Amino acid sequence: MIEYPQLTPNEYKGPKATLHTNYGDIEVILFPTQAPKAVENFLTHAKDGYYDGIIFHRVINDFMIQGGDPTGTGFNGESIWGHNFEDEFSDDLFNINGALSMANGGPMTNGSQFFIVQNQHMEPAFASQLAGAGYPQAIIDAYVNNGGTPWLDHRHTVFGQVANGMDIVNKIALVKTDSADKPLEDVVIENITVND
């Protein structure tokens, strides 16, 4: 197994999925070894068409883009099991820029919603804080050089990483939004194709 597989997405041999949006395609690699339930949930929903036609309902530039709610409100959506499922935190995965993570309303409240980390900037001072917290150097470098949201680590389950299409994520992050961070014009996940 590759240590810190997010750092070498093009070498990854595991399952992949492509989010086909009205802004372009976003290809993600998925990590069933570290987050088996989150990956199963996402892949099953994708294959069943659960995510087809839904929007990214929450978009905050230099933070993340969030979708996965069939009502587009941010208050709904359920797992494939019909109830919330537990967090799956791994010492191999982090909320670095491009991470695909479960959105939640607190511990153990995972359903269908997910987000892609889009923070491209990290204050250099964060490096010493991460080092003090015991982060591996390779991950500290990834945070400092490419950005991310380390304050979400061990709060939101990371279960994938963008391998291709960060330019699309960045384009989506720049759309105009209302006071609730909802895009004024829909950013739509038309469908998701799976290669597992």
UniProtKB/TrEMBL annotation:
Residues 20-194 form the PPIase cyclophilin-type domain. It holds the Pfam family Pro_isomerase. It catalyses: [protein]-peptidylproline (omega=180) = [protein]-peptidylproline (omega=0). Keywords: Isomerase, Rotamase. It comes from the Bacteria. Its EC number is 5.2.1.8. GO terms for molecular function: peptidyl-prolyl cis-trans isomerase activity. Belongs to the cyclophilin-type PPIase family. PPIases accelerate the folding of proteins. It catalyzes the cis-trans isomerization of proline imidic peptide bonds in oligopeptides. This is Peptidyl-prolyl cis-trans isomerase. It comes from Periweissella fabalis.
